[in-house]
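Let us practice reading a record.
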Amino acid sequence: MSDPASKPCIICVAITGSLPTKAHNPAVPISIDEQIESTQAAFEAGASIAHCHVRNPDETPSSDPERFARLMEGLHRHCPGMIVQLSTGGRSGAGKARGGMLPLAPDMASLSVGSNNFPTRVYENPPDLVDWLASEMRRYDIKPEIEAFDLSHIHQAAAMHKDGRIPGPLYVQFVMGVKNAMPVDRDVFAYYIKTVNRLTPDAQWCAAGIGRHQLTVNEWAIAAGGHTRTGLEDNVRLDRDHLAPSNAALVARAAELCEKYQRPVATWQEARDILGVPMRAAAS
């Protein structure tokens, strides 16, 4: 096995999400212009993937394809080469509305392959919807990012990969620290890695920690040779006493951890090569 220190680390920035508002942190980018500006700064700080949600003017979550289209256009212009990943998460819409932006053919899209509890609700991902979202991603040549909130989700993604519903090497993200879902547990984290390596040896993996756990999981992932996610969607603070001033500040913190563990921060070109996500001819 190659030395983890020699492997570039992909930093994904989750810029907005569906829940944080400016009341939580004024730096949370809500408008399309704010999102583009915030992502550009994060890109320059070392992020090579932008995980994107869109919002209505009143800050409520949206799944409006037109808003996603405007955001993608701006990111292609101001962050050339950056991997744009659109969210199909359940807070922004119901049923097939969650995939209404997939005909825009982003580089990547999130795909949750099973249900689990969230803080105040069930995050429903019924098998027929999961299969439809996966089929749309195949149709438009979009690479899924598997969002694993539970061990069963890794097994399900591996099964879908084996039978062809998810082509190509998997990219699996461990989401840890959501209340009522998988806690931040070092033994579980290690077993997640072991399970991915056993079931899909050619997969790449990433990890995200929610809230106060963000920095902990960033460090675990980087030290273990994986990739990591940061950003104001998952956590609005630098520490107990200080709000994060920007997405770029959280990316810079992850990049400092890469330096600590002698991991090079992946450029957008390296990230595309590692994940097998080529530039689209239409992107500009």
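A brief commentary: Residues 8-275 form a domain with the TIM Barrel fold (CATH 3.20.20.70).
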